[in-house]
Amino acid sequence: MAAKVGVSWRGQGDPSVHLRSRLCALGLKGVLEKSLKIDGSGLRSQRYVVGVAASSIAEWQLTDLLAYCKTPYAVAVSALERRREASTIGVGQDGDWEGGNRRLYLEYWQRVAAVNSANRADLSDVGNAPLLTVCAKRLPGVHVMDAWKWQPSRMGEWYESRYYVFPGLNREESFAVFADHTQTTLTLGSGSAGLRSLLAELSGNQDPSYCAQLWSAWDLDQESNLLARQTLDLNILDFEMPAQRLHGITPEICAAFPAAAAQWHHWLERLSATKAIVSHLAAGIDRQGGAYFCLYYLDGAD
Length: 302
Description:
Number of domains: 1
Strand order of the largest sheet: 1-3-4-5-6-7-8-9-11-12
Largest sheet: 10 strands, antiparallel, barrel
Shape: globular
Number of strands: 12
Strand content: 25-35%
Order of helices and strands: HEEEHHEEHHEEHHEEEHHEE
Radius of gyration: 19 Å
Distance between the termini: 15 Å
Number of helices: 9
Helix content: 25-40%
């Protein structure tokens, strides 16, 4: 959501038209990122977020946008208090406009820039220990994003998510941690060869400017109680990877989520045809205890 700008807004028939129309009316421009979420019940595609540079949003514009999205009062207060530190503000939706979940994101990328290379960890001695466990013990996560999710019909209830990135991991280590986590989370007993092969190909790109960022997230309810969701997110937007390269992980996706197999094939063909670019991959356990996998992308059709 933070890296690319200038994506045009077409395809007015898609579910994001409500939010995009409001942003246009406010004179705001941003990046539209869509996503697919796959779990035991199938695949959900009506998911999107528009990221806008925080420096381009005046307080009155943000206040108007928060009201339009029927943001809970406490969430709106927090967002307005934290906006001055934010580098990107994102607003989005999961599901149809009337009955789905609204989303609000504030990113703080300057915090990562403030972490110097002295925080780089030496992982040469980890042996066979799970890298994710090592990360938790040795690498300081940098708090880079706050997110809130709610339903307009139930404004007294919301979830807050705090996202942390691990700047101490290099590209190969980020890929390895994500592959291990995904294999364990999706219970891929036969391994995750397709995912590992895909990440190995990306890792082979020697351009040092191409960054792979590993994120983790913690969820809290409105009383600040920690919730059960566990997720890792791998940001690979720098690599501008076409969605068609995800065909290699199809056997693993279909094995983990058989109910979503037909939908996955359909969407992968569609995204390949529109030359969609993959921005993030995520895997985790949701608040109900079920496994899920997410694909975030910039759609060439927009």
